[in-house]
Fold:
Amino acid sequence: MLRSVTTALAAAALAFTAASPAASAPAEAPTVLDWLAEKQSDTKPFGPLLREGSDWSVFSHLYENDNGKPGRKIGDATSLCTAVKVEREGYVTQCQRVLRTDDGSISLTDTIDRYGPGPYGTESAITGGSGAYEDAEGKAEVVLHGERATFRITLED
Structure:
């Protein structure tokens, strides 16, 4: 009798586990956005004018990324950057970025090292959003390629 009670309890526990929402619901895959920005204007100081504390802004057109080239235009992007460390070999910046589309905007913040000829890459934190991206959480891989920047954004909602 003890064996049949144990078997019945084990079967009930297995049935409960299989029926529980956590066990049966598949994990949602994160949404990945692959965007490209093409610089239109830039106020960054050059040469000896670039000092720690220097601020500048960048305005870009925002596109879907089509294998490293601009695809369909989806909006614009702005960046406000501050040089936090300047050396002869390069510099480090802290940047706040807003990627704006018809569906809404995504705000990013990052620190990026700019030593050598580039490209320069960093992981950026999603700090907010609006519209379709109102509850945006996750990260973005940002790579600066001269007049272009790529954004591979992983939304983990």
